Amino acid sequence: MKSKKAVLFNVLLVLVLMVAFTASVQAGGKVYKLGMSLAITGPTSDAGNPMSKGVEDWFKFVNDTKLLGDDTIECVIRDDQYENDATKRNFEEYLDEGIVFYLNYSTGSTLALKKDFEDAKVPVVPASYHEGNLIDSTQIFLPVATYSENIVGLAEYIVANHKEGGVPKVAFFIHPSAFGRGPLEDTQKAVAAGLKIEIVETVEHGKDLDSTAMLTRLQSKGVQYVLCHSVQSPVATLLKDSQRLGMTAKSFGEKGKLTFVGAHYTGGNDLIALAGDAAEGFLWACSYNMTSENNEGAKKQLDLAKKYGRDDKAANSHNYATGILMAQIPTEAIKRVKEAKMEVNPANLYKILNEMNGAKEYKSFVAAGPLSYSPKDHIGVDVQNIYQAQGGQFKAIKSVSSEYMKTIRAGK
Q1: Which one in 140, 271, 280, 369 has a CA-CA gap of 20 to 30 Å to 386?
Q2: How many domains does the chain fold into?
Q3: Residue range 261-302, pLDDT digits in tens
Q4: Is residue 7 in a domain?
Q5: Mean pLDDT, the chain, as a whole number?
Q6: Range of the structural domain that residue 396 is part of
Q7: Residues 6+ apart with CB under 8 A from 147
């Protein structure tokens, strides 16, 4: 008899524990899986490393503050060292793990995996703002203005502020890749459409540690403006060599001197750290709000970094801000899908993203303007700030939106 009672007691205990476990799981909410692949180490890790921290910190904040109620986001971040094959493996593994959203990094891997994204029907936010990412693509959503918008917008600024008579003479200093060449092609289209600049020469930089010969040649051809589209290291070398040779303009468009301007990945605090006072006067187009602006958005970025123990370098990096925005986009999409009482899956997140416009646009504290998407527009933040390096900080001098890029897109 005692044996039967003991068995019955054990059965009841197991049932109670099972019910308690099920209840605790339900109380814990749902877990939404995301994946990210980027260069935390290796080439371009100076951008990828703080970016990964921004993504990680935002999702920690979402879960810690219960922004999604009892539901949480689990984002696995893997290092691909800027290797396309590694990125592809990471993406395929994430699909097997049931992700509802994917965050990518480089231009090369975004272009290489474009068909994979289409086949998987998973929304993708990359850290590459290459205009070509959007060609024959439905799943890619760019966070901010493209590199082409950066460069063409800067060219428009040059034309509007050129003090000398005649057409401004410019040279391109670009990365030897699709990433580097894209804005050149769109600037050439803008010139054909009426933008009054003369492109004198294009230089695809190599591994040269000295730019003396190139700078001397450009100056001899009457070039006054150098449009840079690369990453910070080669641009820093260019600026230091120009300063050493006495070629850098002390005021915008100074006659006989060179004025340097650049797109998103050429500037920021990392450029100043590398180039020092040789960066003074550099004009930089970027759609992120810099912490040097000391506004409410900057305060929120610094508070987030402090909350999760980041050092000053990461906290003040526009690449850290990039990571935050990349994480905010799927977070907001998930939040809106839940509010609409729909299942959180790739199809519904895609639908909600395409409705994120007008009164439904999203305002992020790290961005220079509101973010919006529609079925025909997958570029999030359309405006960009033009920053100038002043006394070791980048300060916003103008907010612009490229008019010629609108013309170019209308013709595509």
Answers
A1: 140
A2: 2
A3: 999 999 999 999 999 999 999 999 999 999 999 999 999 999
A4: no
A5: 92
A6: 148-286+387-410
A7: 129, 130, 131, 179, 182, 183, 229, 263, 264
